[in-house]
Amino acid sequence: MLSQTAAFSALFFFTVAMIYAALQDAATLTIRNRLVLIVAGGYVVFAPLAGFSLLEIGLAFGTGALVLAVTFTLFAFGLIGGGDAKLAAAAALWLGPEATLAFLIYTMLIGGLLALAMFTFRAAPLPASLHGWSWISRLRTPGRGIPYALAMSPAAILVIPTTTWFALVA
């Protein structure tokens, strides 16, 4: 029963954290290190409580490290932001080897749609009623980047049902 309760709490925590990251990124075009540490730290707390073995935890950390290496390479080439790279790795930690590839594919697909939407949003005239909103001005600034957590959050939520976490609560 403890593992089921812990898994449910973990799923709630992870989902809320990913949604918060998306909202924060949309509003500020920044994913704070503190949030990434909270997401990763949540895994460290919840995984043992949910009954994950040391092998499962080790595989999750290996998956997260691999994603961090790949995403930091993308960051080095200026393709994504540093916060995006770190958040993707923290999400991969939660999703583990069984769901990370699907997460990355969904992130790319949703991210492509997001990029098209952002280019359209930046090119379209802004209604006068929205001119005073600083976060909207930030989003519309060309060259400011794309709030990629808006793609990662739904991607993570789409694949979480395929993970061990979900199996523990079902």
Description:
- The protein has 170 residues and is mostly helical.
- It has one domain.
- It is built from seven helices and no strands.
- The protein has helices spanning 2-28, 33-49, 54-76, 82-123, 134-140, 149-159, 164-169.
- The longest helix is centred in the middle third of the chain and has 42 residues, at 82-123.
- The two termini are 12 Å apart.
- The model has no long low-confidence stretch (mean pLDDT 91).
Which residue ranges are poorly predicted, with pLDDT under 50 across at least 5 consecutive positions?
Answer: none
The gross shape turns out to be: elongated
Gap from first CA to last CA: 12 Å
Number of helices: 7
Quickly count the domains.
1
Count all strands and give the number.
0
What brief labels describe this structure?
mainly alpha; 170 residues; elongated
Secondary structure: elements and pairs:
Elements: H1 2-28, H2 33-49, H3 54-76, H4 82-123, H5 134-140, H6 149-159, H7 164-169
Helix pairs in contact: 1-2, 1-6, 2-4, 3-4, 4-6
Summarize the entry for a quick read.
This protein has 170 residues and is an all-alpha fold. It has one domain (2-169).
